[in-house]
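Can anyone check this?
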Amino acid sequence: MDIFSFEHLIAPLTVENFFQLYWEKSFIHNKHSSASYFDEVLTITDIDELLSQQNLIPDGIRIVDKGTNIPAADWTRSDTLINGVIRTAVDNEKLFGLFNNGKTIIINSAEKSIPRLARACSTIEQQLKFRVQANIYITPPGSQGFAMHYDPHDIFLMQIKGPKTWLIYDSGEDLPVVYKAFCKKPELVSNVEINSGDFLYIPRGTPHEAYSSAVSTIHVNFSLKPVYGFHLIEELARLAVDQDRFFRQTVPHGFQSESEKKAYLDKFQERLNELIERISPAALLEKQKAHFAKDQLLNYEGNLINALALENISLETIVSRSSGFTMVQGNLQTALIIQFGEQKLKIPAFIEKDILMQNSPFKIGEIKGLISDQGKLDIARQLIEAGFLKIEEPGNLLAH
């Protein structure tokens, strides 16, 4: 597998078939002949290196037994630093002692700690335009991390070490966005064994449970955080607050007459219709795109090397536009505005933008516009520092 992608994740299904036949409808189990099918994304060694850190911060780590959390005090320690600050860290002996006694280790948001997993999440995010979180589940032999439940989000599961038995039940809730108690007792519809290298998709609302048998198991859940239709209504409400004083007024209180309440509701309907007429659904989607651009998982690999190489850039230095992230653009009379993550870049109007926006590498000296050579270096430095541009072969510029 050369480049991990959503297509690789759901293979041999095509993207078209997945979204037509399974998305938000039915679970799917894809078997792969290779136990190392997902090694490009995550290996047991990656997890071992993370958990073997001497000063591992416990944020994101959970220890559970059939859904019950084991208190952090049972598997952490307190260290006093030389400045007197007390820091909590994972106690490796206690952690693996609980694991050896049948408790499941969960690493939430593991994409923040494991670079290859971060790259995979970023790729899926950019393809789907949904936020993605990766959670790792490490279950000892003969154990169960969670009793039967459903999740209010879709799950894309990679089995890193198996086998593991999964029980899938009939749909409990229709497209839930929060967890609620079961309306009826779920009925078992499938009993599947997931082996190393296999893939499992579970739509939100589908009750399930899993347990290991004679061997320990490891799997990764890619949990999607998509935009739902009601999010567009929430966006409309935010715009209403910003743009119309009427929607910032309080609703009728208990001392007002029925006629006054009716007048308010009539006015509310009128203003709401005007708002809906003025703001199109397409504009609401664009707002969501801006939110995604701000919250997306950005890849910071190579930033240090580029920062060190900045000391020696020249007009002959070859740079190119960074890829793998979503940006939004806006135009002012004096500048082009580019936003992604927490970055908000201003490219002055007197600089020609085409060369900066192209995908091909170029020399800093080839930047055109009413700008001096020093100005070209300054704007290139600004864009490299922000991660918008990257230096081609930065190692050649590192000072030794």
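Reply from J.R.: I decoded it. The CA atoms of residues 141 and 216 lie 4 Å apart.
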